[in-house]
Design brief:
The complex is a heterodimer of chains A (101) and B (471). By secondary structure, chain A is mainly beta. Chain A has helices at 2-7, 35-38, 90-93; strands at 10-11, 16-24, 42-50, 54-55, 59-63, 69-77. Chain A starts with a helix and ends in an 8-residue tail after the last helix. Chain B is α/β, with parallel strands linked by helices and 471 residues long. Chain B is 43% helix and 13% strand. Chain B contains 19 helices and 13 strands. Chain B has helices at 8-13, 15-23, 39-44, 50-59, 71-79, 103-116, 129-140, 160-171, 185-196, 206-210, 213-227, 242-253, 289-297, 323-337, 347-358, 379-388, 423-437, 445-455, 459-465; strands at 67-69, 88-92, 121-125, 144-152, 175-180, 199-200, 233-237, 260-266, 317-321, 364-367, 392-396, 406-410, 419-420. Chain B has a seven-stranded mixed sheet, sandwiched between helices. Chain B has a four-stranded parallel sheet with strand order 5-4-3-6, sandwiched between helices. In chain B, strands 11-12 form a two-stranded parallel ribbon. In chain B, α18 crosses α19 (459-465). The longest helix of chain B is centred in the middle third of the chain and has 15 residues, at 213-227. Chain B starts with 7 loop residues before the first helix and ends in a 6-residue tail after the last helix. The chains are: A mainly beta (101), B alpha/beta (471). Chains A and B meet through β3 of A and α5, β4, α8, β5 and α9 of B. β3 (42-50) of chain A pairs antiparallel with β5 (175-180) of chain B.
Chain lengths: 101, 471
């Protein structure tokens, strides 16, 4: 484990990052779950400013945008959004050019 | 101070005390039996009049949204209707509220209440537009905000609409707790409420529902001012029941007793809402039957002791539509009416199309909301994502839709028909749930009166249909 961390670059304190936490192990989860959900842990991801110099995969503390201190595994540096309007859906193109005829 | 037990069972067991501290409402004051409570007094004692709410909302960029005539769509519907049929379709452009949806109405009163009571922040558990609404309203009242959101499956994949909603929350300055699939969202909400002492801006408090009453009242006033009469029908997208309850209450407060209240949900029957696998196989994250049916048939399954959203109390009809029909009508709204809006808000527009076809030409049907659109929250992203996840997308007869497998986009407006839900079946299912909560043998006159009001029926009907669970 330790060796893996050492191959990762050092992330500076104050960097905007995302951490991950296992909130509940599969066996700790709610009783009434569908079979597929029962098998996987309940996970949390949250972003904040890194409170200590660390490498990806290490346990760290962050300060969230509203100032709360949270702990977890360092997952992403400068987490961002890349959702889009998606690939062209040809089925949509002609709608509205045909209905009124 | 000893560290509290944070296990699932222990936190859930502390539910009542956490709720009381985070809401500032003592529900025990209203509760009369395991099923009955004084609903009207609970709603009244929020302490806000309609005028108060209008003032509070106008301070934070909520309300007074435009009501548009959808003339081209109405014309298209008239062309395929029987002679004399084809009601005028109006849409209330709720995307004009701060944060881009009617949910700002709910969040605004909660934020004001939290501010007035001296809470330092607000928390909401939601994957919907409500998160952005709470974040936007909290920002304007100088409150901190945490949104607890179900975002991704065990592969770490989140569908674009939810990802966009999370982004919007962060844009308004909220801390977003992004969680994997599961009903433990409620556990996480309780934990966070306990840790922070923030206000629980649940969707289902009296504040969350009363805030929507202004929407019903505005519709009544705008339709009357322009057409000299009340709307004949109002189509309302239905999930947890708040949208329908609040809008109907506002219409009733404005004296629209004859207006038909029509609920509408996307039919997702067959998909399990807590399934890790099914999570990304649905293109709608709300406004669907996965919430609409269970919440109608038992409202008290939420994050508050008694739910202020009680849809069957106000509902006259319930229409189901398919995902494909909603995407089709969303595209029509864009191309025919020059309004690009999010698909989830267009669920009720789809129902309005089918209603308008059956209503007379001189009648009016109002679609009571739109929502903002953008990357992720767009029917093209939804369909593209569905296709990537192995869902078949094609044009054809929407009757061939299979939730989680096939999305069939109609070829003609004539194929937009929806499906009517049997209201009595829903009412009977509600009574069965009531009987599970409190045995029928123990129901007293007050319980019967409560159930009758909650089902928009009389006591005799409830007595006649009280389930016999003895065998």
């Amino acid at each position: 484990m330790k060796n893996v961390h050492e191959q990762e670059p050092v992330i500076q304190t104050g960097t905007w990052v995302e951490i991950e936490q296992m909130v509940l192990k599969p066996e700790e989860r709610a009783q009434t779950l569908p079979d597929d959900t029962k098998l996987v842990p309940y996970m949390l991801r949250v972003s904040g400013f890194l409170l200590e110099t660390a490498r990806l995969g290490q346990e760290v503390r962050i300060r969230t945008i509203i100032g709360r201190e949270l702990q977890g595994t360092l997952r992403t540096v400068n987490p961002s959004y890349s959702h889009s309007f998606g690939a062209t859906v040809p089925e949509l193109l002609t709608i509205g050019t045909e209905v009124e005829q | 101070m000893s560290r509290r037990d944070m296990s699932y069972a222990a936190v859930m067991a502390r539910k009542n005390e956490i709720m009381k501290a985070s809401l500032g409402i003592d529900y025990d004051d209203f509760i009369q039996s395991p099923i009955a409570f004084d609903y009207d007094r609970m709603m009244r004692e929020t302490g806000y009049t309609m005028d108060d709410m209008v003032r509070i909302q106008s301070e934070t960029k909520v309300g007074n949204t435009p009501l548009f005539e959808l003339r081209n769509l109405t014309e298209a519907v008239r062309k395929i209707s029987e002679p004399g049929k084809g009601a005028l379709i109006l849409v209330k452009d709720e995307a004009a509220n701060a944060s881009g949806s009617f949910k700002a109405r709910r969040a605004s009163i909660s934020a004001y209440e939290a501010f007035k009571k001296g809470y330092k922040g607000m928390i909401a558990a939601t994957s919907g537009n409500y998160g952005a609404a709470v974040a936007s309203q909290a920002a304007q009242r100088g409150l901190k905000c945490i949104i607890v959101q179900e975002v991704f499956d065990s592969r770490g994949v989140g569908q674009p609409e939810i990802v966009e909603k999370g982004r919007a929350c962060e844009a308004y300055g909220a801390e977003v707790l992004k969680l994997s699939v599961g009903p433990e969202l409620f556990y996480m909400l309780l934990r966070t409420l306990e840790e922070t002492g923030f206000f629980n801006s649940s969707l289902y408090t009296p504040f969350g529902i009363r805030g929507i009453e202004t929407l019903g009242a505005e519709i009544a006033a705008q339709v009357r001012a322009r057409y000299g009469k009340a709307p004949d029908a109002v189509a309302i997208t239905h999930a947890g029941g708040g949208n329908l309850t609040g809008t109907a209450r506002g219409l009733l407060a404005a004296g629209c007793e004859q207006t038909r209240i029509v609920a509408c949900s996307v039919d997702l029957s067959g998909l399990h809402m807590a399934s890790d696998h099914d999570f990304n196989r649905k293109s709608f994250t709300t406004g669907h039957t996965g919430f609409g049916v269970p919440f109608a048939t038992w409202p008290d399954r939420t994050d508050v002791p008694r739910n202020a959203a009680r849809s069957l109390r106000y509902m006259d009809e319930y229409q189901l539509v398919t995902q494909g029909e909603v995407f089709y009508v969303t595209e029509l709204l864009t191309k025919l009416e020059g309004l690009e809006r999010g698909p989830a808000g267009n669920t009720s527009l789809t129902a309005a199309v089918t209603l308008a076809r059956q209503m007379d030409r001189d009648q009016i049907v109002v679609v009571q909301e739109t929502e903002y659109t953008g990357a992720g929250k767009h029917h093209n992203s939804q369909l593209s994502f569905a296709r990537q996840n192995g869902i078949e997308v094609r044009r054809g007869d929407p009757k061939d839709n299979v939730p989680g497998k096939t999305i069939v986009i109609p070829q003609h407006l004539e194929q937009v028909w929806g499906k009517v839900q049997d209201m009595d079946k829903l009412r009977l299912s509600y009574l069965k749930n009531a009987a599970k909560t409190h045995p029928v043998a123990q129901w007293n006159e007050n319980d019967y009166a409560f159930l009758a009001a909650d089902l928009k029926k009389d006591v005799a009907w409830v007595k006649q249909h009280a389930p016999d669970l003895s065998n």
